[in-house]
Amino acid sequence: MDLYLIPGLGADHRLFDRLALPEHTLHYLDWPRMPEHASLRQFAQELAHKIDRSRPHGLLGVSMGGMVAQELAAITDPKCVVLISSWKGRSEMPWNIRMMRGLRPERMVTDVMVRRVVPFLRILRWTLGMEDRASQELGQLMLSTFSARDLRVMMDAVIHWNGPTSPLKKLVHIHGDKDRLMPISLIKEPIVVPGGTHFMVYSRAEEVSAAVRRALLDRT
Question: Is 1 exposed, middle or buried (0-12, 13-18, 19+ CB in 10 A)?
């Protein structure tokens, strides 16, 4: 089956370098450049042009990519949607994320911050679960490909997302119990990866790959 992979905010196709899904044909969807105040639904509409809807396909998204995958599902009618380290709606977001709507924290993101400050913030690496040097280096490399302006657009879209219009039936949610950005205590019916952090699709790729393979086998 064709499987379309969507990375998270500030990430690209390299996030999936360690994911092993040999039974499927993988297609990597990197982020398009969107106008100011674009919604996640608009991101999905733009990415939909890259999906061959004439063939059976699935969607797999990490973090922001999982949210966009849910919006995409209403357009492309996939066989299955796999979320990794993501949210299914506003009810799964912690209070500190929900309160950001009125504060507009994305305005603080500047090119100087992205290039010179963010890579050295230990609290950010801790929150994302970038526990080893390879994960930290990859995170920095991916982030460096985005302008502050594009990161602000992404952040704004995530903060203002309420969830898909209607719940998806063919959906599986894989989540780590050590995810500090998206606490598992708020996640409904997840498949749990013990010790998995927000960056587990790369740092614990073997376990995540196995969970994805089982999920796709059961639901396709």
Answer: middle
CA distances from 116 to 41, 108, 121, 122, 144 (A): 32, 14, 10, 13, 10
First and final C-alpha spacing in the chain: 9
Which distant-in-sequence residues (6+ apart) come within 8 Å of 39 by Cβ?
A: 157, 160, 161
Q: Which amino acid is at 64?
A: M
**180/195 Cα distance (integer angstroms):** 11
**DSSP H helical segments within the chain, as ranges?**
40-47, 64-76, 95-98, 100-103, 111-112, 122-128, 133-143, 148-159, 200-203, 205-219
The whole-number average pLDDT for the span 7-13 is 97
pTM of the prediction?
Answer: 0.92
pLDDT in tens, 20-39: 999 999 999 999 999 999 99
No. of helices (H) and no. of strands (E), the chain: 10, 6
Distance (Å, rounded) from C-alpha 5 to C-alpha 65? 8
Domains and CATH numbers, the chain: 2-219 (3.40.50.1820)
